[in-house]
Write a structure and sequence with these properties.
- By secondary structure, the chain is α+β, with helices and mostly antiparallel strands.
- It has two domains: about 1-30; about 35-95.
- Helices cover about 25% and strands about 50% of the residues.
- The protein has one helix spanning about 1-25, and strands at about 35-45, 55-65, 70-85, 85-95.
- A four-stranded antiparallel sheet has the order 1-2-3-4, with no helix packed on it.
- The radius of gyration is 24 Å and the shape is elongated.
- It starts with a helix and ends with a strand.
Length: about 100
């Protein structure tokens, strides 16, 4: 019984300690400036027949991101849009 209690206490202490380390790592996150060059690789849309000129669609953009440290990374952004008569602010993208 005493061994089970000691094991449980040790597991709890390790869990709390690992949580503190993760929190510290998150607190040390910094912002790095970057420049991204990208282009549309896929664009699909369909008309919606509720209002004249209403379309919905999806897009994919690919490119390269260059960070101020000199590191280079591939850029990918996929998203959706919802426009009426080529107007609207409903572009939703998810960069990865």
């Amino acid at each position: 019984m005493k061994r089970i209690i000691m094991t449980t206490m040790l597991a709890f202490i390790l869990l709390v300690f690992s949580g503190i380390l993760v929190t510290q790592a998150m607190a040390e996150t910094k912002t790095v400036k970057s420049t991204t060059t990208n282009y549309i690789t896929k664009l699909e849309f369909v008309p919606v027949f509720d209002v004249k000129g209403h379309i919905i669609g999806m897009f994919e953009r690919r490119g390269v991101t260059v960070f101020e440290t000199g590191e280079v990374a591939a850029y990918l952004n996929r998203g959706t849009f919802d426009l009426t008569n080529h107007q609207g602010d409903r572009f939703r993208g998810i960069p990865s």
